[in-house]
Amino acid sequence: MEKKIRVLVAKPGLDGHDRGAKVVARALRDAGFEVIYTGLRQTPEQIAEAALQEDVNVVAMSILSGAHGHLFPKVVDLVRKNGMTDALIIGGGVIPEGDIPALKEAGVSAVFTPGTPTSEVVKYINENVKL
Amino acid sequence: MDIAEELLKGNRLALSRAITAIENEYDEATEIMKKLYPHTGHAYVLGITGPPGAGKSTLSDKIAREYRAQGKTVGIIAVDPTSPFTGGAILGDRIRMNGLTLDEGVFIRSMGTRGSLGGLSHKTADAVKAMDAFGKDIIIVETVGVGQSEVDIVKAADTTMVVLIPGMGDDIQAIKAGILEIGDLYCINKSDLDGADKLVREINMMLDLDSLMTEWRPPITKVVASQNEGIKELLDTVEKHRTHIEGNGQLAERRTKRTRDEILDILSSNIGTYIKGKIVDSGRLDGYVEQIKQHETDPYTVIGQVMDEMLK
Predict the structure, then answer these.
(1) How close is the nearest chain B Cα to the Cα of A16, in Å?
(2) Using CA of residue B184, residue B151, residue B64, residue B97, what is the dihedral sign?
(3) What is the ipTM of this complex?
């Protein structure tokens, strides 16, 4: 019996830059996780549905457009509505410090801003994931 | 929740959880499979295999859309390789299928190979059964990008489609053994590129030489998946093959063989796990290794002893 951590790496919204998401995806792979990468320009509905079909333990979103305040909480909402109460939801990208408390309030359990070493993300997931 | 019961009621999260239980070999997986098994056998399983970059995911996406247009429900299992070094994987097949995510008649699941070398994961067949019991009409199983010998797909699929693209090598490649022997159908993707017609000729030549060929000659269809060209024609050949093997009893034969193989596979895997548990956990294995290092005994003698003991 082997419990493997499955992570959905998703890019909600309209910005077309996924280098960051790919670097994180690669780091998570190297940490032994199964990373499902869904590509650019996903709606919150698509992300929540993919999370359900893939039965992931973690939903990791990257956003650079500034729409995090709208999109992150929506994903949290939809994922929870789908009955995935345990899934860890985290975010990253160009996100002003001042916005972070509201995102956490909305259920995004951690927010990683530019310059965060990928090892920190891996550590956070390992310590907080519910299997 | 009772996963099997909920799955049979059409709960998508239950299907997802069932596949996780199967993949991770949770204790409850066997019970789930027992409850699902009576509800299997209705779906038609289409295997799609081919080298990396041949366009298998794009093709799966287009094929699924075409089946949806015909009113059929579709399950897709997309397998990508697990790193043998870290155990991690990047499962990226969904990128080509994003347009299907919100269609309730489609369920897509990505799987890592997790150490299996045949192009699928060991648990793919059971995941197919879960989708079958869920009520999917068609289940598409997409293998990892294969080389020349990953042919497990023929055991899992009712119809196996081999996807090739122009420019992958000369005609000697086409007469080698392996994936070029397993196609019930051949699909030439990216056929707007140079060399597509030459590839069709080469495959035809290979098929001309096939002495094992029965009354079914695998059709070759040229498509451009990204442009949705040739998909209808391709699915016509799937339908033809299905009708053919349903008519001559081959489908029943394939499925019977699958059941036999399955029982043997699970038995040997369980017996292997049992024996490993006995000699690894007790520390006996380390003892044997030490004795062998000292030349006091040899692996064959040790295996004989262990087998005698286990089979008593």
Answers:
(1) 14
(2) negative
(3) 0.93
